Amino acid sequence: MINPFLESCVMCPRECGANRYQRRGYCQAGAELEINLAQLHFGEEPPISGSRGSGTIFFCHCNLRCIYCQNYQISIKGYGREISQAQAIEIMLFLQEQGAHNINLVTPSHYALQLVEILTKAKEQGLKIPVLYNSSAYDKVEMLKVLEDVVDIYLPDYKYHHAVYAKKYSHAPDYPQVAQKAISEMIRQKGFLQLDSEGIATKGVLVRHLVLPNMLSGSRAALQMLASDYGTKIPISLMGQYYPTYDAHHYPELDRGITEKEYQKALDVIYDLGLDCVYIQELSSDDSWTPDFLCNNAANND
């Protein structure tokens, strides 16, 4: 069935207007879902991965163009394969059968409308575990409102606080204000992250912030904004897993991992602000945090 909203796509803040049945949008996605990998993932925050893993589905393409993207093989190069709605539902139910704590939709923004229908049907067919929307926060509020009834947990990034770096490194000068509005809507819908008796997330919002070399993500201002707007109880994941990949080597200021001193500076801001629900990470200067994406028809559930 033809979705009229995909005939002139304004699903994301780019509002490129592409007829995704005839050509790909700015995000390079067509009308059908494309994924690279679906698996139990144990590298997320403890309340997300838990002991049995997060049922993670990695979607192809992206509405950002981050020059350091750790998933660039699928987000930018588009390695993966097309799947039908029925196959998507089958994958979700299979991951649930494998014991996944949740269904973790990674980089889903450009498929939001398709996912509403898929998730509705999946729940009708027996999907009971929480659905997690894992995005860059470069999301339109209108699309998030459409997702309200089918998404349980939001895991947004807050990548930059300054437009100049958002433009230079992700080709999105409006990122800070878009992300702030998106996070506000996510919190309006679900509140802060809620955990069950075993410490596993059941509902709510956890905001991620990736510390970049030379503090280019504006960590102090970003964390101050979050604390000012939402209070010291807002759950935050302070990520230290940056390493230079994709095109980052062409930018000397990003052509290295972050230092312990840089990460500590961000931690000091957290302590100064009195933020008391923060997940921290061991520093990594390589791709040990990144799943092994395959460069062909990699998405399967066998």
What can you tell me about this protein's structure?
The structure is a single chain. The chain has 9 helices and 11 strands. By secondary structure, it is α/β, with parallel strands linked by helices. Helix 8 runs parallel beside helix 9 (260-273). The two termini are 29 Å apart.
Strand tally, please? Answer: 11
Tally of alpha and pi helices: 9
In the CATH scheme, the class would be Alpha Beta
- Trace the largest sheet across and list its strands: 3-1-2-4-5-6-8-7
Average pLDDT reading: 94
Structural class based on helices, strands and sheet pairing: alpha/beta
**Low-pLDDT residue intervals, each spanning 5 or more residues:** 295-302
Question: At CATH's second level, what is the architecture?
Answer: Alpha-Beta Barrel
Q: Provide the gyration radius in Å.
A: 18 Å
The rounded distance between the terminal residues' Cα atoms is: 29 Å
Query: Element order, helices and strands?
Result: EHEHEHEHEHEHHEEEHEHE
Q: Which bin fits the share of residues in helices?
A: 25-40%
Sketch the major β-sheet: 8 strands, mixed
Our estimate of the beta-strand percent is 5-15%
Q: Might you state the CATH topology name? A: TIM Barrel
The H-level CATH homologous superfamily, spelled out, is Aldolase class I
Shape annotation: globular
